[in-house]
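Request: Could I get any protein with tokenized structure?
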Amino acid sequence: MNLTIDIPEQKAAALEAQARAAHMQTEDYLVRVVERALDTRRRFDAESLGRHLDYMASKVAPETTPEEMEAALAEALEHARPRRNWPS
């Protein structure tokens, strides 16, 4: 992927200095920064989802069947997912 970003000169200079300190090309350094941020976010989101599912499971009545739980989950996801309009 090629991407052009427009950031203030001070921040660009800071990135360049950090890349030099890491003995890397600025572009390679920035790729690592972005990858790490994405990995951190993905891990945080997975942990957050796990905590939320644990919380929701603790609120389920013991007599609820797995089928009822699956149906409730499907309904909740249908309402929570963003509506997508794919271009033709």
